Amino acid sequence: MTQGLTARIRENIVLYGALAANLGIGIAKFVAAGITGSSSMLTEGVHSCVDSGNQILLLYGQHRAKRQPDAVHPFGYGRELYFWAFVVAILIFAIGAGVSVYEGYLHIVAPEPLSDPLVNYIVLVIAAVLEGSSWFIAMREFARTKAETTWWRAIRQSKDPTGFIVLFEDSAALAGLAIAGIGVWASHAFEDPRIDGVASIVIGLILGLVATLLAREAKGLLIGERANPHVVETVRGIIAKHPAITTVNHVRTIHTAPDAIFVAVSADFVDSITMGAGETIIEEMEDQLRAAVPGLSSIYIRPEKRENAARLEG
């Protein structure tokens, strides 16, 4: 029981780390906003609450995605995680960005003088330390999976939204803390509380941009994305080198979960191969494919004449 709990925490360390940080930070920000009347601090408090809710939704999505296949969903429930990732992007845009811009607008049209900013500065420093710790964990875990590719390409190619969502959220949170700090300081330095409202709007715009990027990535996963090109070429290579195959017509893949891939192969077999021999050959190739790419959850190899496949594709 203890080992299972430890493994589950380790598996979701990015989400648990972000959740713990955001809960503590959110409470502190709301207290500071109530004491000082800072719009940007109130905005940051809402931001932390939204992020906390997002981590809970992603944990829930991971739990739901691990359900076993059944008659209604023969390929499993893995893509439910992608649905909740899309919901997270919508929440960031609708609540996080929306509330931030609205609060900023109110403090511009009806500015309120700020009290001693010391409480804000203390909370911002504590929040930066906690958010920075969460960001470091997210960066470290994502770096383990990105290999030699660039960060942006790794995000675009990632099939697990939990890693890059937390990374985006924490990056936006750190940027928001910096802007909130500048807004609080400038409001007092120039004796203009409207600046704090402007800072709140800028934070909202950053959240809107992050939400848009996350929604685009989540939408692609939800619709269905192919496996990594290296996986496709590995499958093609294994099938093509078998002596019973004359041509590999096509290899089509789709992720049914972050770690599960459906692959369909059309191949032209040697004409002299009998039906019984073909079945045995297909089973052998499936075993080879699973050994080479453990993430292949479903494999379909279809014997098909090259000219027929070309005609259908044309």
The biggest beta sheet, please? Answer: 3 strands, mixed
* Total helical elements: 11
Gap from first CA to last CA: 56 Å
Q: Which spans of ≥5 residues are poorly predicted at pLDDT below 50?
A: 1-10
> What is the name of the CATH architecture of the largest domain?
Up-down Bundle
Strand content: 5-15%
Using the alpha-carbon principal axes, give the shape.
elongated
Which series of helices and strands comes N to C? HHHHHHHHHEEHEH
Question: Number of folding domains?
Answer: 2
Q: Which strand order spans the largest sheet, edge to edge or round the barrel?
A: 1-2-3
Task: Write a structural description.
- This protein has 314 residues and is mostly helical.
- The chain has two domains: 2-223, Up-down Bundle (Alpha-lytic protease prodomain-like), CATH 1.20.1510.10; 229-313, Alpha-Beta Plaits (2-Layer Sandwich), CATH 3.30.70.
- It contains eleven helices and three strands.
- The chain has a three-stranded mixed sheet, sandwiched between helices.
- α5 runs antiparallel to α7.
Q: How is the topology of this model organized?
A:
Blueprint: H1 2-11, H2 13-36, H3 39-65, H4 80-109, H5 118-146, H6 151-157, H7 161-189, H8 194-223, H9 229-240, E1 245-257, E2 260-269, H10 275-292, E3 296-303, H11 306-313
Parallel strand pairs: 2-3
Antiparallel strand pairs: 1-2
Helix pairs in contact: 2-3, 2-5, 3-4, 3-7, 3-8, 4-8, 5-7, 7-8, 9-10
Provide a compact summary of the structure.
The chain is mainly alpha-helical.
Main attributes?
disordered N terminus, 71% helix, 3 strands, mainly alpha, Alpha-Beta Plaits, Alpha-lytic protease prodomain-like, 314 residues, single chain, elongated
